[in-house]
Design brief:
The protein has about 240 residues and is mostly helical. The chain is about 40% helix and about 10% strand. The chain has a two-stranded antiparallel ribbon with strand order 1-2. Helix 1 packs across helix 4 and helix 1 crosses helix 7 (about 130-140). The two termini are about 30 Å apart. Residues about 235-243 have low confidence and may be disordered.
Length: about 240
């Protein structure tokens, strides 16, 4: 609590380098090999991904394992990147009426679950994020027993398994905090939000619903996932949006 946006902040900092891969060199090396890379953070996970020719898979696996354990964070770089994420929030949310509406609806829909918190964070809390926060989050969650490796393309299970054992196998597992799965209290009334902005010339109407998880009602949850895909082109688990 009080550190909203820390997962997304660390996502940016994961490109700041290690002893063997200097700051910014992670993406440069991939580009020189003819590949592409990026990362993103959602309400549920942070993903780092690369697209590259199969002969360079060993290099990518080694680099990902390296930054899982040997990340270097310097005070000046951390503060500079904090300015970047605050500006990102201003562009995506503060300067975008639709972004502000989405954020307010999410915060109003979930009364207890952390989904009410924006992935980018509340700006007043983002200003307080620092190097110690990033290091603490990194040390708490970035471990092989809290990660999923996905490899798709022109390779084999045997090849990927050997590389995973070579690069990730030596990294020790880390004790993880018990996962708290917070539920929502009963919803007794609909919530309505109206935002007005002089730059908006055409009204937009949006409605979102709470939906059961696959642990609560697996059959209903699966059916709603299909419905959400048909109606809205796919939505995060937990709610359906209809425009």
């Amino acid at each position: 609590m009080g550190k909203s946006g820390i997962a997304h902040f660390l996502e940016h900092l994961m490109f700041k380098g290690t002893p063997s891969v200097p700051d910014g060199d992670f993406s440069r090396r991939i580009s020189r090999l003819g590949g592409q890379d990026n990362a993103y953070t959602t309400q549920d996970y942070t993903a780092y991904y690369q697209t590259i020719a199969r002969q360079h898979l060993p290099t990518i696996m080694q680099m990902e394992a390296d930054r899982m354990t040997h990340l270097i964070l310097r005070e000046g770089e951390v503060l500079s990147e904090r300015d970047v994420i605050i500006e990102e929030r201003r562009q995506r949310v503060d300067d975008d009426p639709a972004g502000r509406l989405d954020e307010m609806m999410q915060a109003s829909l979930f009364l207890n679950h952390p989904y009410r918190l924006p992935v980018l964070g509340w700006e007043h809390e983002m200003h307080g994020l620092n190097r110690a926060d990033a290091i603490a989050f990194y040390g708490r969650w970035y471990a092989p027993n809290n990660a999923v490796l996905v490899v798709a393309g022109d390779t084999t299970l045997a090849e990927v398994k050997a590389l995973a054992e070579r690069d990730f196998g030596p990294i020790p597992a880390r004790p993880l905090p018990a996962r708290a799965r917070l539920g929502e209290p009963p919803s007794y009334a609909a919530r309505r939000i109206v935002l007005r902005d002089p730059d908006v010339q055409q009204a937009t109407w949006q409605r979102i619903y709470l939906a059961p998880t696959d642990r609560e009602k697996p059959a209903q949850s699966a059916a709603l996932d299909v419905l959400g895909e048909i109606i809205a082109g796919g939505q995060p688990a937990g709610y359906i949006a209809i425009w």
